[in-house]
Amino acid sequence: MELDAKIYVAGHRGMVGAALLRRLQRAGYHNLITRTSQELDLRDQAAVEDFFALEQPAYVLLAAAKVGGIMANNTYRADFLYDNLMIQSNVLRESQRQGVRKLLFLGSSCIYPRLAPQPIREEHLLTGPLEPTNEPYAIAKIAGLKLCEAYRAQHGCNFITVMPTNLYGPGDNYDSRNSHVLPALLRKFSEAVALGLPRVPVWGTGTPRREFLHVDDLADACLHLLLHYDGAEPVNIGTGRDISIQELADLLAELTGYAGEILFDFSKPDGTPRKLLDVSKLHGLGWQHSIGLREGITAVLQSAEWQRATARPELNALA
Ligand SMILES: NC(=O)C1=CN([C@@H]2O[C@H](COP(=O)(O)OP(=O)(O)OC[C@H]3O[C@@H](n4cnc5c(N)ncnc54)[C@H](OP(=O)(O)O)[C@@H]3O)[C@@H](O)[C@H]2O)C=CC1
Ligand SMILES: C[C@H]1O[C@H](OP(=O)(O)OP(=O)(O)OC[C@H]2O[C@@H](n3cnc4c(=O)[nH]c(N)nc43)[C@H](O)[C@@H]2O)[C@@H](O)[C@@H](O)C1=O
Asked: Within 10 Å of residue 283's Cβ, how many Cβ atoms?
């Protein structure tokens, strides 16, 4: 991928898209194309056709999607299915029609079967029922992965799919209901410390296990695969280690200095019991993660973004 190649980063304002942009800029790529969703709604087929005809990118990184945690997925089921089907179908189709040299599509660890063998290997996809709370999102993502495979088979497109585990880091979504578990608990514990709250509610039983990768590690892995992987099969991206929600809550309480009570709210869903990724294929391709969980969370808490957002917790800008 030449340093002056025209690279379209779709979803550049999101947590993953912004990390991809930072990583590409740091590597010296200087012909980067971006559009906000206000400038280009990727659900609009005609607008996407016009954009690709005008810009004719050589490479596409598709990090635009409707994304959220377990509650958002289970609440906005139709939006997660429709938006993601439309976004990926339009971008993949125009990438094929405009002869994009290589495209990176982002799947997710949560599209594997609910009770897949652990750690989950790439071949376990579609071998069992999905997790009900995010089935619409998973179906959309699986369709996107299959569309990449189909464009490769029918048109020889070099569209690769990566399967990241749960991510966190700069630019994360901290909305109290729609965010993922790590940013949600980070916000809850920080607010509890600032406001002197005696207890913090954590959803579910605390027994499910999750794997967490810093988004800067993900961006580095994506660039590595863009440069060194041209295969049809998806590639898992993770750390190969997981912790329980209880252990995560204890770690976040420690790092935020929260010493009050942690109350598990059994009325909220647990979701998938476990989704640890087998990352041996990724390691075999020459990449390993470098940011550990404790180190990564500490970096978030020490970031200027976090300091600004939590300066006045009663008016916190983390929403
Ligand atoms: N976060 C995670 O834990 C994980 C994420 N992933 C995948 O990574 C990708 C990015 O996720 P993440 O960065 O967390 O998500 P964010 O919600 O942070 O960012 C999503 C981006 O998509 C853009 N977008 C949404 N709808 C549209 C639309 N209709 N038209 C154009 N752009 C749109 C938004 O653009 P704008 O800001 O301009 O509105 C936003 O910047 C997704 O494919 C997701 O499935 C995979 C595994 C885990
Ligand atoms: C990355 C992946 O992320 C999603 O899957 P998920 O990992 O199950 O989602 P989650 O990050 O929201 O973690 C949920 C787990 O955590 C517990 N939990 C406790 N307390 C809070 C809490 O306050 N908020 C949230 N969200 N969860 C909580 C909750 O009870 C459950 O056990 C997919 O939808 C999909 O979006 C996807 O791609």
From this structure: 12
